[in-house]
Amino acid sequence: MARGLPKQKPISGVKHVLVVASGKGGVGKSTTAVNLALGIAAGEGVNSVGLLDADVYGPSIPRMMNLKGNPEVTSSKLQSSVLFVPVSMSMGFLVEETAPIVWRGLMVMSAIERLLRQVDWGELDYLVIDMPPGTGDVQLSISQNIPISGAVIVSTPQDIALLDARRGAEMFQKVNVPVLGIVQNMSVFQCPKCNHETHIFGEDGARQLAFSMGLDILGDIPLHINIRETCDLGKPVVVSAPESREVSTYLVLRVPRMHKVQGSSFFFF
User: Fold this and answer.
1) How far from 115 is each of 46, 52, 97, 201, CA to CA, in Å?
2) 131 vs 85, which has greater pLDDT?
3) In angstroms, how far is CA 264 from the centroid of its own chain?
4) Looking at domain 14-257, which of 3.90.79.10, 3.40.50.2300, 3.30.70.260, 3.40.50.300 is its CATH number?
């Protein structure tokens, strides 16, 4: 470890941490994180999954998971909320939904540390962290302070989004976090009346970015009204419409278990 970098300390009870990140907002990162966590929880060999909303300024997991109320404090630790399968924690549980969080960087870092270390996560096979957009203090702090098994980058095929997706992937590579690959979100829109497909945000841009960076494409998520509506209603599509066509892509993103090869860990999707 380079001199001056903090020593990474695992989160108590958590075996593997996955971070879901994007270079910019508005690309469906939180929707992907929620449905990914639910997809992992439905996989074989996975006993328990947690979901942490690390976007302090714009927490969205409470709405997407239909969770409300303040968490209880037991043995000096916050109790995570349980609905569906993942246990969840978010700054959104600690403030009013419409209240602005006007904090400086040090206060945000303190809040993130509390969400990581002072939550009773129990025993988790995977903790999925929905990161804030960008490549700022929160991403760097989390990457340097806890061991991360892998990062999933979410982007639309649009050129502007891809510029920031590349920055996000390169940031994780610089801090030695394995980048598992890129999810191409809103990849295609299929008209519900005539079934005509339109690539509103461009075609295969994220796939081309992944190829240029030597990364995998983990899946193509369509632009579908069911995905948007179910998250707005707090009933993510993976649990509310598990047999639908659009869900099949999220289930491809499952991470059933870690495999060991010659002492090194890697993910099997």
Assistant:
1) 23, 8, 18, 35
2) 131
3) 23
4) 3.40.50.300
